[in-house]
Design brief:
- The structure is a single chain.
- The chain is α+β, with helices and mostly antiparallel strands.
- It has helices spanning 83-88, 138-145, 165-178, 206-213, 232-235, 281-285, and strands at 9-16, 20-24, 27-32, 37-44, 46-54, 57-66, 71-76, 101-104, 107-111, 122-126, 129-132, 185-188, 191-194, 267-273, 290-291, 302-305, 321-324, 333-334, 338-339.
- The longest helix is centred in the middle third of the chain and has 14 residues, at 165-178.
Amino acid sequence: MPISITRAYGSLVVSAASAGALWLDGEKLCDVPAGASANLGNIEAGERNLEMRYADGEPETKTVTVTGGQSSTVSFTWQKDGSRAMLSTVPASKPNSLVDAVYIPGGTFLMGSLDDAYATPHNVNLSSFWMAKTEVTQELYESVMGTDPSYFTGDSSRPVEQVSWYDAVAFCNALSQKEGLSPVYTITGTKVKADFGKNGWRLPTEAEWEYAARGGSQAASHNVKFAGSASLDDVAWYKDNSEKETHPVGSKTPNELGLYDMNGNVWEWCWDWYGSYPWVFFNLFQGGTQTDPKGPVSGMYRVIRGGSWYDDGDSCTVSYRKSSTPDGGYNDIGFRVVCSQ
């Protein structure tokens, strides 16, 4: 009687912080751009040896057990700039500040989504920065500005909302002055100029926001839909669970960087004018990378990110983009702050 041998196959999602060549069991599979990932299907079940070979660094090796019918995630984290070592020397939170912020080491990632014609995927390299763990609360906003414009009141730990983009940049300057920092913005009526060399608080650029939501350059979840989990209910207050209102910040699970509510609760203002990303497919495959992009030089609408208590799951992903008029203040839009130093 013939012997029948049945083989099981699984899949792997392999991400890389730096560009390199991916090898499986001694055979080269493909080149992986910095911040991108490779989706490998039909991998025979069992223990497999993976190796990422870099042009300017020692190879990084991983051993993974592939299970039939299942997908496993592997993350290669080596970076030439030594940001992993840098992270260990930086305080866990920004000292002497009203803002509970975390340090986010810079790196390169693949920004955008193939599902959005206005969000062409492209490589972005970012400098390090600090980001608030939570959206600005009503308590913090009132302590700085002397008023709380929010619609949902009764708990000052809820995110502030009904703030326009102009209100947000004014808050950033006021907070900077309160803490003895140099304000980033020069505000003349509705004209706002930014000096990103200043050490004060500011709004994140759209690239900084998405990089942080995805977990930074070291995260294994670069390609998940939501910030820190494959399940939106774990990390966000949104249409299906919010009961049509905001909730206290930090009451859901944070992502890998310790950032809360990057999805849901309230949309978050970003610095950038809204516009299509550059058409960079050619540059991407040629190794082209944008460095610290700050969006179009002009426009009609400013970017908001992350979704809100009012929105469904499709609007609460790490890559979903939306915009709003900068002078509008709505009960589903708030913000969080960052600083460069």
